Amino acid sequence: MTVPCVAVERERGEEVRRRLAEAGALAGEYEIAVEDGRIYLPVTAREDVPPSLRGSVVDRDPDRRETPTTPADLLDFEPSIERLGEVVILDEDDPERAAGIARAVMDSDVPCETVVNRASPIEGELRVRRWDVLAGDGTETVHREYGHEFALDIAEVYFSPRLATERHRVAEQVEADERAFDMFAGVGPYAVPMAARGAEVVACDLNERAIAYLRENAERNGVEDRITPIHGDVREIAADWTGWADRIVMNLPHSADEFLETAVALAGDDCLIHYYDIQHEDDPFGPGRAAINEAAGDDYDVTVETEHVVRSYAPHEYNVCLDVRLTRR
């Protein structure tokens, strides 16, 4: 049986698969195939594919997938779950419901070693949560994203798999021999891909455990010679890197504005800053533009190259990114 498939280069497979999944266009009953460096993603119908990908649709005869047992098959409802490596994450207020979902997840065909339930919001300056482990053992895992591997412990570091597409967008802009400074690096989901593109990266974080994982992840991905991990407050170490950066990542959306003077100090003569913010839908970009212009002062011309919504964060609030170029006067 002929089925429409989106055909793209293999390295774009995860990005395109996510876009198709978000559009509800993936035909899950068919196998995804890889052939001659291209990946073929079966879709429900040509018209369901996002317009920018429709030119990549071809007809193929894919194998039918053996239907796996899902948690929904074992429950009377479709549970909301999130996977991070081999850890499945729940966000349930009812302990009995959470326990039932955990049992169903472990009895299903979902690749999983541990099921946890959120036990707190993100807390403290290290941005970590508390978790209830409902099944399995431990909160350490290895997450795979766009060809890279990231070891982490969700109880000790902050990591959001939902930002994979955004991180890939930034990394794709990086050119070899750039000097990139990641001010809030975590376990390296920006730093590692930027280094893999050939950049020299300085990666700083206040969380000592995150920096330990960053070192491990740099080695895992073969880029340890291009990453300098630094444990500490970026405001206290910036003097050693004054005027150094061609590119700066500021992924601390609740309080990045407090670090803009440091970012300007790190910036070279021509520097692109990826500034993340959380603002109300009425004016999601204005506060960030104003804060960056104030920090740059008379030393730089400020050009906003891109403004986009990364995701909805809360009712009427957006997580946004401004790509802003500073050019020294």
TrEMBL record:
Residues 81-328 form the SAM-dependent methyltransferase TRM5/TYW2-type domain. Keywords: Cytoplasm, Methyltransferase, S-adenosyl-L-methionine, Transferase, tRNA processing. Signal peptide: none annotated. The keyword Protein transport does not apply. InterPro entries: MeTrfase_TRM5/TYW2, SAM-dependent_MTases_sf, TRM5-TYW2-like_MTfase, TRM5/TYW2-like_N, Trm5a/b_N. One of its GO terms (biological process) is tRNA methylation. GO terms for molecular function: methyltransferase activity. SUPFAM superfamilies: S-adenosyl-L-methionine-dependent methyltransferases. Gene3D superfamilies: 3.30.70.2580, Met-10+ protein-like domains, Vaccinia Virus protein VP39. Residues 57-67 have a biased composition (Basic and acidic residues). Residues 51-71 are annotated as: Disordered. PANTHER family: TRNA (GUANINE(37)-N1)-METHYLTRANSFERASE, TRNA METHYLTRANSFERASE. This is Class I SAM-dependent methyltransferase. It comes from Halopenitus salinus.
